[in-house]
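TICKET: design request
STATUS: open
ATTACHED STRUCTURE:
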């Protein structure tokens, strides 16, 4: 297992219940696939450096976890499909 860090931006106009549902969904995806979440930070709504899909703000979430190497592709595939995710970035931590 390797350490990864994924930061993703959600649409700023989502209701708090929907944000909690999406964050929970991505947490369960990690744990169901044999991963372990080490840290989860909901940074909150911040102004973007540039406009993305006509949004000037985004809701930032930072998730650090341990998982197998092939799992990150599946997580990014799910985020790519989800219309509520504006952007995401996964980085391998360490080494």
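STATUS: resolved
RESOLUTION: sequence designed for all positions
ATTACHED SEQUENCE:
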């Amino acid at each position: 297992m390797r350490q990864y860090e994924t930061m993703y931006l959600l649409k700023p106009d989502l209701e708090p219940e929907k944000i909690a549902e999406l964050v929970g969904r991505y947490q369960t995806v990690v744990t169901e696939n044999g991963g372990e979440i080490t840290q989860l930070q909901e940074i909150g709504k911040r102004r973007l450096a540039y406009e993305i899909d006509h949004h000037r703000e985004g809701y930032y979430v930072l998730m650090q976890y341990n998982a197998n190497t092939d799992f990150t592709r599946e997580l990014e595939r799910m985020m790519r499909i989800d219309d509520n995710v504006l952007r995401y970035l996964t980085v391998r931590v360490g080494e």
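CLOSING REMARK: The beta strands are 2-10, 36-52, 55-67, 85-92. The chain has a mean pLDDT of 92.
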